Amino acid sequence: MKRILILMLLLFPALAFSQEIENYLILNNIGEYIFRPKRVITIQNAGILVPTGHFPGHGDMTYEGIYIHPQTYIGVEVKVTQHSGSDSDKWLLHEVERGFRRSKDLQATYVSPNPLREINGNRIWYTWGYYEWVSNNVVVYINFTDLTGTKSEPLEVVRAYLAKFPSTIPAITIDRAYNEKWLKDEMERRLWLCDKWFYQLQLQKAEQKAVLQNTVDSMQVFLDYREKYYGIKALDDKKLLSDYLMQNNGTGIRNKLKEYKDWWNINKTGAINLP
What we know:
This protein has seven helices and eight strands.
């Protein structure tokens, strides 16, 4: 009896972990697509949103899995991220959309003519090979590689995950007014990120070097947007911020942040230069 109890205690963490993965990934074949159990990965991060500067919630977890089509050899990668439910999650819809805007023109245009698509009554962001959506505070990302553009889409996999995580993307009309709002929201988010990082420093939850680096990164993005959409040159300010960063001058960086926030409060309702 004692041996059985010890065995159960040893097995319980593994069983609990397996159940946790099952809450996010479909751990079996989907139609003709073969699930590869040895390719499952779990990572404590914001998943596909890491490049957006998404502020890392301590409870963000990403679960990754692979499905293979045995005839076409299409590999389908799935990443499901459970976000922590912190205040940074208010930007999830915005940050997911950012991945479908062109970085070379500061997100003024989309990477494809029709980036929104509806599948089984669910709105998702889409360009060839990539599908992404938000389901409350869960982000689902699916991609496959087809360099020829001739292979069939893995819609069986997409539909299966939409059934598990229905999209909560609202109805969107992509027009000039919507585009202007999104760009202004990105400027707002960048200043919000700066405040968020400095608050972490105040709580002693982050090192000053990391806080200043992340803050300057977001401030410089803000300056790029301000230059492009409001016509205010950014070069001198970006150089000054870089100097402050090298000097570990937190006071100088804070003062510039206050200056930008004051400017933004006055100008954020004004018209911007859109192509």
